[in-house]
């Protein structure tokens, strides 16, 4: 397979000029934010990144207006601490009760799983999170690799050795068995419920684009209710909080002047 197509130049992607109540959000911030919003297309990733930055700015401006300060907890930035404190003060939600937890468990059989591990191999097409041209080129290269592997799955080892930027290339891209927390969240989220085989679309992470084949899985049996109760309660709490936060953000957005992006509603995934 020729790699000449992989090296073709991609036109520079123009980023929107975002402002919230007259405060500009720099292109460098938007370019960095893109890495945290893996999606099936660049357009979807860009939309999610714009929305997240606008929401963050809305919340920080509200915290400024209320004079909110906060002490950082483990791993928090000062901005994250102030947003957490703002939401704790302004958004309150009830805890999930036993009936709500049992209803959720009955409606979602097999949703919560016990310990698991996955065996996989990949081809890493490395590029920095803020290298927009590099990411677009990597997407095209990943698409060609996937086309090649759909027709010739036996070539995975060779393609990994030729194109992967991961040290695992020496083993044909084989990462061995991975368990929860041993890889980036982007991997776990997309792979956990996949059947073994070549993933239809590349995975995007902070390191670049990954062409992935899931070779095997062990464990991951559904939990019984008693074992799952705490997780269910936490999950329901998050859902209720997300809805409440979404409504809160919607009010802030409705009162704000937002430029460069059509902000329609809000959801809890924006607060991270």
TrEMBL record:
PROSITE patterns: PPIC_PPIASE_2
Lineage: superkingdom: Bacteria
SUPFAM superfamilies reported in the protein's UniProt record: FKBP-like, Triger factor/SurA peptide-binding domain-like
GO MF annotation list: peptidyl-prolyl cis-trans isomerase activity
This enzyme's EC code(s): 5.2.1.8
Catalysed conversion reaction: [protein]-peptidylproline (omega=180) = [protein]-peptidylproline (omega=0)
InterPro entries: PPIase_dom_sf (IPR046357), PPIase_PpiC (IPR000297), PrsA_foldase (IPR050245), Trigger_fact/SurA_dom_sf (IPR027304)
Pfam families referenced in this protein's UniProt entry, alphabetically: Rotamase
Domain PpiC: from-to ranges: 115-216
Swiss-Prot/TrEMBL keywords: Isomerase, Rotamase
The keyword Isomerase appears for this protein: yes
PANTHER family per record: PEPTIDYL-PROLYL CIS-TRANS ISOMERASE HP_0175-RELATED, PEPTIDYLPROLYL ISOMERASE
Family affiliation: Belongs to the PpiC/parvulin rotamase family.
Name this protein carries in UniProt: peptidylprolyl isomerase
Taxonomic lineage from the root: Bacteria, Pseudomonadati, Pseudomonadota, Gammaproteobacteria, Pseudomonadales
């Amino acid at each position: 397979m020729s790699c000449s197509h992989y090296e073709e130049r991609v036109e520079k992607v123009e980023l929107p000029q975002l402002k919230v109540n007259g405060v500009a959000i720099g292109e460098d911030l938007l370019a960095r934010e893109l890495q945290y919003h893996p999606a099936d297309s660049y357009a979807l990733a860009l939309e999610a990144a714009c929305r997240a930055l606008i929401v963050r700015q809305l919340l920080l401006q509200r915290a400024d207006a209320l004079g909110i300060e906060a002490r950082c907890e483990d791993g928090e930035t000062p901005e994250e601490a102030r947003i957490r404190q703002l939401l704790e003060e302004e958004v309150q939600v009830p805890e999930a009760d036993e009936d709500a937890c049992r209803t959720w468990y009955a409606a979602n059989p097999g949703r919560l799983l016990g310990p698991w591990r996955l065996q996989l191999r990949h081809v890493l097409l490395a590029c920095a999170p803020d290298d927009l041209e590099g990411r677009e080129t990597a997407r095209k290269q990943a698409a060609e690799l996937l086309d090649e592997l759909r027709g010739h799955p036996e070539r995975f080892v060779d393609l990994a050795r030729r194109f992967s930027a991961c040290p695992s290339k020496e083993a044909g891209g084989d990462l061995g068995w991975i368990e929860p927390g041993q890889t980036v969240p982007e991997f776990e989220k997309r792979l956990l419920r996949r059947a073994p085989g070549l993933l239809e679309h590349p995975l995007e992470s902070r390191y670049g684009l990954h062409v992935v084949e899931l070779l095997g899985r062990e464990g991951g049996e559904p939990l019984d209710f008693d074992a799952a109760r705490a997780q269910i309660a936490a999950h329901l709490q998050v859902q209720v909080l997300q809805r409440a936060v979404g409504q809160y953000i919607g009010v802030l957005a409705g009162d704000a002047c937002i430029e460069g992006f059509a902000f329609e509603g809000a959801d809890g995934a924006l607060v991270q």
